[in-house]
């Protein structure tokens, strides 16, 4: 009887450990990088400060730049294969560099922009963008900005 109790207790403990390991691995799998084809530092057209816009067609691109010319980095985009995300972000100092990360989390996307500021006192702001593998027009994108004072 003691042996049956000991064996069943060990089996329950083993199942609990295996279940925890599967749960930890499931959390790690949720985040996957989406290929960034090209990083851009461009005029953001009619984008509002702190917002991003997903562009999936030449018409949408032309609409964003209806009051200015389309930047040369955005010419000849193959919208059958790629999407463009552009935006702008205001800063209180000069911008030294920017870094982009775009990932899929479950059924949503996460775009993290890291801006490193320099010592200049000019309130500069930055226009930015990325060309990525095609995503649906109605995709939900969580936009995060990290500002680093260098």
In words, what does this structure look like?
With 150 residues, the chain is α+β, with helices and mostly antiparallel strands. The protein has 2 domains: 1-31; 34-149, no CATH class. It is 23% helix and 39% strand. It contains 2 helices and 8 strands. The chain has helices at residues 2-29, 58-64, and strands at 31-33, 36-40, 52-55, 82-89, 95-105, 108-117, 126-133, 141-149. Strands 1-5-6-8 form a 4-stranded mixed sheet. A 4-stranded antiparallel sheet has the order 2-7-4-3. Strand 5 and strand 6 (108-117) form a beta hairpin. The model is unreliable at 21-30 (pLDDT under 50).
Secondary-structure blueprint:
Elements: H1 2-29, E1 31-33, E2 36-40, E3 52-55, H2 58-64, E4 82-89, E5 95-105, E6 108-117, E7 126-133, E8 141-149
Parallel strand pairs: 6-8
Antiparallel strand pairs: 1-5, 2-7, 3-4, 4-7, 5-6
Summed up:
With 150 residues, the chain is α+β, with helices and mostly antiparallel strands. Helices cover 23% and strands 39% of the residues.
Task: Tell the overall outline.
Answer: flat
Question: Termini, distance in Å?
Answer: 68 Å
Radius of gyration, in angstroms, nearest whole number: 23 Å
SSE order, one letter for each helix or strand: HEEEHEEEEE
| Largest sheet, strands/sense/barrel | 4 strands, mixed
- Name the structural class: alpha+beta
Please give the number of β-strands. 8
The helix fraction, in percent, is 10-25%
Q: Please tell me the overall pLDDT.
A: 82
Number of helices, counting only DSSP H or I runs of 4 residues or more: 2
Largest beta sheet: strand ordering: 1-5-6-8
- Return the domain count: 2
Taking pLDDT < 50 over at least 5 consecutive residues as the criterion, the unreliable ranges are: 21-30
């Amino acid at each position: 009887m003691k042996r049956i109790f000991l064996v069943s207790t060990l089996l329950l403990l083993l199942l609990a450990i295996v279940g925890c390991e599967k749960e930890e691995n499931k959390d790690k799998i949720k985040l996957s990088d989406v290929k960034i084809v090209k990083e851009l530092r461009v005029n953001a057209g009619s984008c509002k400060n702190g917002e991003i816009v997903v562009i999936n067609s030449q018409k949408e691109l032309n609409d964003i730049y209806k009051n200015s010319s389309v930047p040369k980095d955005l010419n000849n985009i193959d919208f059958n294969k790629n999407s463009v995300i552009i935006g702008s972000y205001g800063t209180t100092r000069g911008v030294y560099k920017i870094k982009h990360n775009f990932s899929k989390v479950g059924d949503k996307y996460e775009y993290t922009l890291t801006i490193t500021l320099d010592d200049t006192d000019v309130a500069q702001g930055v226009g930015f963008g990325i060309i990525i593998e095609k995503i649906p027009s109605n995709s939900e994108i969580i936009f995060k900005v990290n500002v680093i004072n260098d």
